[in-house]
Amino acid sequence: MGFLTRIKSLGGKWLPLAASCCLASVAAFIPVATLAQDTVGDGSTVVYAADYFAEWQPITASDMLARIPGQDAGGPGRGGPSGFSGSPTRGGRGLGSGAGATEILINGKRTAGKNNSTQQMLQRIASSQVQEIQIIRGTSGDLDVRGSGQVINVVLFEELSSTSFSYQGQVNYSQDDTIQPGGTFAVNGQNGALDYTVTLRSAPRYRNSLNNESSILGDFSPNDTVIEEVTVDGVNNELSFNLAYALSSNSTLQVNGLLAQRDAPVGIDRVTTNLRTVPVGLLVEREDNPNPRNNWETGFDYEYEFNNGSRFKLLGIANQDDNERTRQRYQRFGDNTEELNLFLDLNAITEERIIRGSYTFDIFDGHSIEVGAERAQTTLDSALALGLKSDSGSPSDAVGGLVPVNLSNANSTVEEIRYEPFAIHNWRINPKLTLESTLLYETSEINQTGDVLNSRSFDFIKPKVDVRYDITPTFQVRGSIERIVNQLSFSDFVAANDEQDNDAATLRGNAELRQQTQWRYTLNTEYRLPNDLGVLSAEFFYADHQDVIDWIDVSTSEDNLASVNGNLGDGVEYGTNINASIRMGMIGMPNLLVNSTLSLQDSEVTDPFDGRKRRFRVYQRGRFTLTTRHDIPEWRFNWGTQYFDRIDGSMFQYDIRDFEFTVGEPFYGVFAEIRDRRGITYRLDVRQLTDGSQCRERWRYDGRRSDGVLSELEYRCTHGGTQPSLTITGNF
């Protein structure tokens, strides 16, 4: 029995929020006469056939997915603005999907890679090649992924031979009147048993922002002001390929590759006005900060299906990220000469090698088991060099002709070898109820060599239980209990540049850092409204964290206060996510799709510096999003809006001698898209219609923060400006 056959057998601004919630409530009771999606099997899998999308004339598979209620993640910008993401505490390890994540498959297979994005592949696949899109809400041993909130499977037509070409040209405009072009060209098709996609992409990463900072001293007298213009003149050039070959009727092989150049040089012009002197003093500085970065990845996924229906899978991934960041600060003088006074160079090469094998088989009717193991090797080679202007010491060309500064833990290699055997049992208890239970054992060893010599071993048992019950074909309840081991950031092990504070040159590393773990409990409900009117869903979660990672005190004396990322102890996290995706058929506009999300959450941990209970560092209390998409098929036109707003006043960062919190204005965006008779699409995006300021307030203390002796109060705002772009897309 093939995969598809098995799959089909599976049964501050709250006025917009109030309006969307009312619409969702009304939608549950008002039917509309529009084409509904089909369900297959017991209703756990919802299928959208190709003709469902015909009236909207989509160009790509990504365009098709955006028309499905509940699947447009952020609307035209393919996501929200930076700084509006959720809690960073949910990241797991290995190739398994994260808790509650949505996985995207192509013909039942996921991309054998981490950086080679499946979502980008959807933008290269022509809509004419898509047979149907499946929203898989149940669990099964036949799926290529486990533990996901839901799975989106894009099924392509099985043609003997077909080739399509797609192209996309883009022009971005920034607030400093700079115009940056970019483009993508992709070849996608089939030739007998071979499916292939080859993509060339060049995308600008240009960004211009203005920063204004003012500060007062602890006695509330004026200190200084800073005006700063930051320009990131980056580029993202990529060559990627995805090949799938049917070796026989029982076996398939996928090979993926990515070669990318992601340079992001930064230029800064800064004027600091000293308000403590009469007349005021001016310090004019310039920074020239190159950031060459290269990234490659390759992966394969082999599957063999035995005659009895059991399967063997072997997957491998190798990647490398070579990232060098250099900070060069020059002081400018009145005669237009300048002098280098700071040189900071950080070179970090991260490599990863993963191999994973598994065997899936049915033990008896309704029960399947997958057993396997994963091995991963992750390494970081890091070297940090600091040079300062000084009258003592010998200058060195290695630090721009300045005097080198000895840094602890500046040159290190960190390596982790991890083994993870696992067993996954999937049980279809009855047509409405499924249970998936997972048991993983992780054993790892982390070695650090160079300036610091250290070796440690870790062992974790990671169980998970996932239960799903289809009360009706349209109403599902699911719950899970899982132990998660979060991924460590190896950059926390070694000395690094402090990019958040111009007054601090480097951050120390912590060779004793341990993984943050958590027990996570979730309950989800999902109701698919009748007649394809939309989807309502809600998630409630509670997480009990161990070894929370945050700043800890590593001071050697009161005259040498210092902090690093370390393990605080236990913490808790809880919250809810409520989503509504509604077609406005109740007001006679079935082609208007409105998506709204409300996230509310909180957390608690003990501060290591003053012993008080507080939230996790830089933890969002929640956010509200509202996006719309209105299709007018007879005009071959669609347009939409974006609104993002987070709950401000709660994003704090606590350190030994200062703390800060961040607030920001809402994000507004709008897009308009029209398709001509040749099938070419013209799209205008305007991201950040308003100023979109993001502001930070920092309190500095004389000595320890817990002593309460304020020395300086800074207030800093960043203005990114409106960001319009024009995109032309077509295929042939």
UniProtKB/TrEMBL annotation:
Keyword Hydrolase in record: no
Localization: Cell outer membrane
Signal peptide: 1-36
Compositional bias ranges of the Gly residues kind: 72-94
Keywords: Cell outer membrane, Membrane, Signal, TonB box
Protein name (record): TonB-dependent receptor plug domain-containing protein
Pfam families: Plug (PF07715), TonB_dep_Rec_b-barrel (PF00593)
Family membership: Belongs to the TonB-dependent receptor family.
Broad class of the protein's primary localization: membrane
Residues covered by region (Disordered): 67-94
Any single GO CC term annotated in Swiss-Prot or TrEMBL for this entry: cell outer membrane
